[in-house]
Write a structure and sequence with these properties.
With about 475 residues, the chain is an alpha+beta fold. The chain has 15 helices and 16 strands. The chain folds into 3 domains: about 290 residues, no CATH class; about 110 residues, no CATH class; about 55 residues, Arc Repressor Mutant, subunit A (Orthogonal Bundle). Helix 6 packs across helix 8, helix 7 crosses helix 8 and helix 12 packs across helix 14.
């Protein structure tokens, strides 16, 4: 039987607040010694009373509005009961039937092939403690317990691992634009659980749902969904039966493994949190938050194509990161707007290559927009050649020096003196007799080789146009057929 895959994603994003969800402890658990950012509230001591973090509520409202959700003007917190070793109180303060945001959507795909993925709910809760597993035992660090955690739940409308990856990449970009979360997947501030089912192709009836956890990268989500879809199909084809369970992704082995049976909502015994009053989000407050919405990735991408004449592909890469898009526009403020494509090429090409290679963010790079524009102006004025500019750029990236300083220190100015270039050409011709013979026999690639040798002998400084002109002259004019 031919099966199709159906995926729903639950994304947890830690919110970028200074204090925890229900107490004043610091949220900086990454750089702290274990169990130092704790108090009776996040330790789950009896008799303590939580207090709602207003900033966390505003960040969740902002995200809900960015994702086209309706805001519940009357919402509340609930107790979600379960006994895991990383949950101090034995229950989690979360939201159940009255989330902050509901009925939103997110578009994925290219302009000509868009798909709307509906979002069921966006709610707010507290994170749990972190377990450190040792040989035969585990340690508990409570620093993370109580960090504000926003959960974004999609409808089961994602049809493939590719769509799941696209959805997460777009959602990740939006949250970074909103500046509500660091979204660092390796540190766990952006986490994804996936609910995957299969069904006979053309049917509307889903088979047993399986939850997959422990995926800490976009690539891991893609690989895990590929594997789990194949695994479920293989179970049925072998005459087996699927069970509702939670499975963990083992990235090194490329497989999912059973962790526990999957709970139903009734197993959590939700009931309204008795220590917190209902939360009322009036229209005035909602509109104040709406006014803070920035220009989001999809809108900015469309503007880049219309305003700067960039291709949808280039505009999509530039606007995938708020910092990269802002860097691009800061460069354009210092240059002719007609240079948009030139700047885009450098940012998408050499700049991105070096950033990725060194694991550097564009916010912390040594090359400011003013420095990049200065280098591009040196190329435009003929002070440095194209090949030299790449060497200068790399030196700028690592040293933080201006292009003009590097050019002066290393004597990299372009050579446009006919006499000097002719001398270099003559020497190369004298030492490459075979290439000269091949050129005169009609082999065009021989001229390319000789040109390369001239550029090499001048350390890339010779004016390429003059090199070509003088070479043709010295080789006796146009090549013969």
């Amino acid at each position: 039987m031919d099966y199709e895959t159906v995926i729903g994603l639950e994304v947890h994003a830690q919110l970028l607040t200074r204090s925890k969800m229900f107490c004043s402890c610091s949220t900086d658990y990454i750089n702290a010694q274990p169990n130092t950012h704790v108090c009776p509230i996040c330790l789950g001591m009896p008799g303590t009373l939580p207090v709602i973090n207003k900033k966390a509520v505003e960040y969740t409202m902002l995200t809900a509005l960015a994702l086209n959700c309706t805001i519940n003007e009357s919402t509340k917190f609930d107790r979600k009961n379960y006994s895991y070793p990383d949950l101090m109180k034995g229950y989690q303060i979360s939201q159940y039937d009255a989330p902050i945001g509901k009925k939103g959507y997110l578009n994925i795909g290219n302009n000509g092939n868009k798909k709307k993925i509906n979002i069921t709910r966006i709610h707010l809760e507290e994170d749990v403690a972190k377990l450190w597993h040792k040989e035969g035992y585990s340690l508990v660090d409570v620093n993370r317990s109580g960090v504000p955690l926003m959960e974004i739940v999609s409808e089961p409308e994602i049809s493939s691992p590719e769509e799941a990856r696209d959805y997460l990449v777009m959602l990740h970009s939006i949250l970074r634009y909103l500046e509500v979360s660091t979204c660092n997947m390796e540190e766990g501030s952006f986490r994804c659980d996936a609910n995957l089912s299969i069904r006979p192709k053309g049917s509307k009836d889903l088979l047993t749902k399986v939850e997959v956890k422990n995926m800490n990268s976009f690539k891991a989500v893609y690989r895990a969904m590929k594997h789990e879809s194949k695994r479920q199909k293989a179970v049925l084809e072998d005459g087996g039966k699927l069970v509702q369970e939670t499975r963990g992704w083992i990235d090194e082995k490329g497989v999912t493994v059973s962790q526990r049976s999957k709970e139903y909502a009734s197993d959590y015994r939700y009931f309204p949190e008795p220590d917190l009053p209902p939360l009322l989000l009036d229209k005035t407050w909602i509109e104040e938050i709406r006014a803070k919405l920035p220009e989001l990735p999809e809108t900015r991408k469309n503007r880049f194509t219309a305003q700067y004449g960039l291709s949808p592909y280039d505009a999509g890469i530039l606007t995938s990161s708020k910092a990269l898009a802002s860097y691009f526009e800061n460069c354009l403020e210092l240059m002719d707007k007609g240079k948009a494509k030139l700047i885009s090429n450098w940012l998408i090409g050499d700049f991105s290559r070096l950033l990725n290679m060194t694991n550097t963010s564009i916010e912390t790079t040594n090359i400011s927009p003013a420095y990049l524009v200065e280098m591009l102006n040196l190329i435009d004025k003929g002070v440095i050649s194209g090949p030299v500019s790449k060497m200068v750029f790399e030196e700028m990236f690592y040293s933080g020096k201006r292009a003009s300083t590097i050019v002066a220190e290393k004597e990299l100015s372009q050579i446009s003196d006919n006499t000097k270039i002719r001398d270099a050409v003559k020497k190369v011709i004298a030492h490459n007799a075979k290439a000269v013979t091949d050129y005169k026999a009609g082999k065009q690639q021989a001229l390319t080789f000789i040109t390369g040798q001239v550029m090499r002998s001048t350390r890339g400084r010779a004016n390429p146009t003059l090199v070509n002109e003088i070479l043709v002259q010295e080789l006796g004019g146009k090549q013969v057929a």
